[in-house]
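cache lookup: miss for this entity combination. No prior model stored, computing from scratch. Input as submitted by user K.M.:
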Amino acid sequence: MSAATAPLDAPARPGDALAATARRNAWTLGLLGFLVLLLVFTKLIQPNYGVTGVKGLAISVLPLALAAVAQAVVVIAGGIDLSIGSMMALASVVSALLMKDQSDGVGVAVVIGVLLLGLALGAVNGTLVVLTRVPDIVVTLAMSFVWAGCALLVLKTPGGASAVWLKELVTGSIGSEWIPRAALTLIAVVAVIWIPVRRSRLGLSMYAIGSNRLAAFRSGVPVGRTKIFAYVLTGLFAALGGLSLTASTGIGTPVPGPYTLLSVAAVVLGGVSLAGGRGGVFGPIIAVVILQLIRTDMTFLNVNTNLAVVAQGAILIGVVMVGSLIQMRRTRA
Amino acid sequence: MSAAVSAPEARREGSGAAAVRRLFRERPIIPLLVLLALLVVLSEVVRPGIVSADWIGVMFRAAVPLAILAGCQTLTMLTGGIDLSVGAVASMSGFVVATLVNGPGVGAGIVVALVIAILVGIVTGVGVGVFRVHPLIMTLGMSLVVLGLANVWQLQMVQTGTVVPDALRTLGSDRFFDVLPYSLLVFVPLAAVILLGLRRTGYGRLLYAVGDNPIAARLAGVRAWQVLIALYVLSAVLAALAGFLVSGLTNVASVTLADSFVLPSVAAAVIGGTSIMGGRGGYGGTIVGALILTVLSSLLSSLGYPEAVRQILYGAIIVAVAAAYTRVTGET
């Protein structure tokens, strides 16, 4: 709840504000510190690691990072969306099919259309969750079949193409060669959509219903509408994730990737409580980068890549265990 | 709780509706059996003559592994959990047996697979029960660990190759007089143990207690962590058994073989009336749920619908059934 009320606090001195921000984002800052250490470590074991490595890292994390943001939004509002991977696949095939052999102008229209599609998919998910009162996990699990089926209807086999400008959004670098376009795109997109929402009344309501549904309801928060809005936003980010898949691979693939479950993992590692009402979207993004970098490091160290999967699982469990131990000690004290 | 809330509601409405409500609430298996019968009739209408002893045998054979995996979900969901590691554990167990056939033998392979499954279950149970990690995260993490280790094992055993042993092939895919599948020999005792265990044993009631009201259970002296460790070990062993049957049924040994069963197994338990929030449900409904999903996907494929339409209808039906439950039982 503290995170939710934070924007309302009026800090007296700038120093206090800084300290308060640091305390509020302790988890994210910790992750960021860990990421820096990991980058240093990477550079130590592989002195060649540089511009190309960073670029590759940025491109490879983009779809999962967007999936993680999508998941974070709905988890903050006390839900969970197991259909993110399927929505991404659907958005990816629709965009790839419509952009094939078309001009840039059409490409822009397609991108806008796909984003609207994402909003619509999210709205369907959210409305079903609110109207049927079936647990979120069950509804979105079932909808994951539906959206994956729709993706298969659109394209049976991987195909289509991406507009050139869309590809250029995620490849190469801008300004300094150390700033990959993919990273900039990610930060820009997330900042433009999430920060205004986070600061608005709706954002506050999302944290409120995730934190304590009943209390939010009694304080006059329109619980149902806010929940639907969270799902709509998740759909939008999932559509962006799908577009990023099309952009980075150049085609659309109808079979959902492993994004749904990995997004849940990233969200939890990123400091968002599955119980809702806590965390933000930048923690999960950093968590995704860390997970990917660990994989890269293991290849540099000539460790079997399959052990990287084991490490991901072990890190997920380990971090959550430590988190819950801290929580337990706090509640006992 | 549900009875107290919805009894006045039921009285307000006509007695017919009230009876249906009561039926749904107290004997959810009856409407489910009606739905199953409808699907069977529909299969017969769509393809006259398709429903035969042979067809029934094929349906049972396909439903058995799903029903066992859905059993893992039912048991864990009763405590408010979920087990997403069943796919990885089931694939791993089938795969381990197939790699050990040419060396130590089938029996040794099965023992090794079961021991690994038990170890996985202990780790999961300790994570969920002692460290209070969310079951979704814990089992997701464990499935990554198991999958990765199985892949490492695969690379080790590339030379040996994999063979699905004859014994598992017979058990998983052959049928007694070409009708009743041998896999029922595994399933019927298992189902009986789970059904009776949930109803008649103290441990079964503890599962409901822990899921329904963890605080009340703790105050009543239940050591939830012991219950949960035993539960996740049980779930992993069930998943391993299902893995043997799946690899026998498909004659394939792969480290991702059973992954496609994970989401349907949750769906079967949900359709069967087990609440994902814990404390409500049972295995009888789950078995019928697994049969419904199996008959449904066979019906849709015999209608000639492409895979895409099948998936869409599959999802739509899960939402519809789950919504009907919630509406009728008045629980969320």
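stored under new cache key. Chain A touches chain B through 44 residues (CB under 8 Å).
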